Amino acid sequence: MNTRAIPAAREEGYFSWFHALTGKERRTFWSCKVGYALDAMDTQFLSFVIPTLIATWGLTKGDAGLIGTVTLLTSAAGGWIAGILSDRIGRVKTLQITILWFAFFTVLCGFAQDFNQLLWARGLMGFGMGGEWTAGAILIGEVIRAKDRGKAVGMVQAGWALGWGASALLYALMFSLLPPEWAWRSLFLLGILPALFVIFIRRFVEEPEVFVAQQKKIEESEERASFAEIFSPAMLSTTLRAVLLTTGAQGGYYAITTWLPTFLKTERHLTVLGTGGYLAMVIVGSYVGYIVSAFLTDLLGRKKNFILFAVGSLCIALAYTRMPVTDNVMLFLGFPLGFFVSGVFSGMGAFLTELFPTRIRGSGQGFSYNMGRAVGSLFPLMIGLSSQHMALGEAIGVFAGCAYGVMILAALTLPETAGKKLES
After folding, report:
1. Domain ranges (residues) in the chain
2. In terms of CB atoms within 10 Å, which of 19, 87, 112, 272 comes out highest?
């Protein structure tokens, strides 16, 4: 670590931890943050072009939903595989591969001629989308010192909101310059931009010291780490509880973000949801939520922060579905919605990094987070089926409550890891 003196004014500031980083650590931080933002940008393009595809190709809402579900499932598989690769070939190499992967298949989406081609291209893109998060979260978690790990990893996670905002701006730009039948393709073609960023990573980002030390030990002992170790008697309980934690967080997120717009449009007959102002409020709320949660996860501890944001997410879901709201109220409720449902993820990367030993960290973190993503992606389907027998708002509340309840129980039973030093 850098031992140079830090001015007192900086030492007392909220970002003193960043000023204390070495050049190597800063390059790693920005590489992971920008990489995650570009991942989000390419991922969010689909949500903006779906209306155009429905109009030009005659897609049904079911077709559009299938593309989204397939992407989530393949991203879960991609994150799982990327975790294993991170333990085998390194965090940095895996990060490069996953960025190139999702950039290539995003561009391929722009050349799709029909629904089946788009489904395949988007599904394959999902492997890189999920893999990038896993590799980047492990990399930044291992580079940053223990007491600042939560802040750093959380602020990297905030890159998602920046990428989401960038995709919204590019959507507005392309659709203002080009006719819709060309604009949606040009949006996907811009997905090539992340590939250029790999050049920077390849030249300036190095593997974490703790990982390099672990690899030397493995070479000397000639005993390679095995993915199956995360299911060994010593690790099985931790792995399963980590899966429950991530399932609760992602199940609640998908339950709220997938069905709330439909509920508010069809049952509350609100019009503000389709406006840029509402989307901007949600995106800004998301970014602020990530940042606040990043600091709180070090200040309060991982577990208390998870519980705080899980309770906040549940409360905002109940407010949306139970309270009588107008368009004006809904516009401002977009901020706390983004704040809580996104902020709940801010401490996830640091926590999972600290739960698993270095030799199987990629396998454990990749499996836990992405198994949670796979199970959580089923929540929108279950809400849709349940809404045939109960009110949609009630179904959203029930499943969001179950999801965040599971998350809180898992957080209570898992060990507190704030400040834990990573040992090889």
Report:
1. 21-222, 225-412
2. 87
225-412 shares the fold of 21-222: yes
3-state secondary structure of 421: coil
Residue corresponding to tokens 């516009």: 331
pLDDT digits (tens, 9 = 90+) for 287-329: 999 999 999 999 999 999 999 999 999 898 888 777 777 777 7
For range 180-209, the mean pLDDT:
87
Which CATH code, of 3.10.180.10, 1.20.1250.20, 1.10.274.10, 2.40.50.140, is assigned to 225-412? Answer: 1.20.1250.20
> d(Cα 41, Cα 163) in Å, to the nearest integer?
4
CATH of 21-222, one of 3.40.50.300, 1.10.150.130, 1.20.1250.20, 3.30.1340.10: 1.20.1250.20
d(CA 280, CA 286): 10
CA distance 231 to 261: 39
Q: pLDDT tens digits for 42-95? A: 888 888 888 888 888 887 777 877 888 888 889 999 999 999 999 989 999 999
Q: What global pTM score does this model have? A: 0.86
Which tokens belong to 138?
């492990």
